[in-house]
Design goal:
Rossmann fold; 8 helices; elongated
Length: 223
């Protein structure tokens, strides 16, 4: 999934980005409210981790702006432990959850997984598609119970296909979830990664919809 992390403290920002990337997601970062506001309005994210005490523009103003603009991605706000009023105000402004500082990274990742599950047809941390099983907690994949070795890019593509199982996803959409917004995105590389995935997954799991993109079948079609 594609996650925006907004935090002005450099060390914590780096720790958050590292942990969320290690969990199998693509991470964008912002260290001030103005950058965050722009990214959240112009780019598509599956979820946002948003600190409220930001320079330039405060986090609450950023969140209110997004919601006014119709941006409905789940937002997990970070607050100071003593600032209980910020939690209430944040939830009223449109936040989906909050976490008080200091926090354990494992708890943040668990809350993030819970927010992402609301977007998918999966009700647990383990996602199933036929004989394919993806564990969002461990960032692992198995087929018929046997571990599958995937590169980080292959895992990210499979995660998005499984989250939106049965939907057709374009190469551009997959590319946006794979690469940061300021990198050179090449949607043609998606074809290469999908081709590698096909060799590792049960035959027929990923369908090419000509001119539109790719779709993961809830169950591989019969040969």
């Amino acid at each position: 999934m594609r996650i925006l992390v907004v935090e002005d403290e450099p060390t914590l920002l780096a720790q958050l980005a590292h942990a969320i990337t290690a969990a199998g997601h693509t991470v964008e970062t912002a260290a001030d409210g103005a950058t965050a506001r722009y990214l959240g309005e112009e780019e598509n994210f599956d979820a946002v981790v948003l600190d409220l005490g930001l320079p330039v523009v405060d986090g609450l103003s950023v969140l209110r702006h997004w919601r006014t603009q119709g941006r409905q991605m789940p937002v997990l706000i970070l607050t100071a432990r003593s600032a209980w009023h910020e939690k209430v105000t944040g939830m009223d402004a449109g936040a989906d959850d909050y976490l008080s500082k200091p926090f354990h990274m494992e708890e943040l990742l668990a809350r993030l997984r819970a927010l992402l599950r609301r977007l998918s047809p999966h009700s647990s941390a383990e996602w199933q598609c036929g004989s394919i099983r993806l564990d969002t907690r461990q960032a692992t994949v198995s087929v018929d119970g046997k571990p599958l070795i995937l590169t980080s890019h292959e895992f990210k593509i499979l995660s998005l296909l499984m989250q939106r199982m049965g939907e057709v996803l374009s190469r551009t959409e997959l590319s946006e979830h794979l690469y940061p917004h300021d990198s050179e995105r090449d949607s043609n590389t998606i074809e290469v990664f999908v081709g590698r995935l096909r060799k590792k997954l049960p035959p027929g799991s990923i369908e090419t919809v000509r001119g539109l993109g790719y779709r993961l079948h809830p169950a591989a079609p019969a040969p």
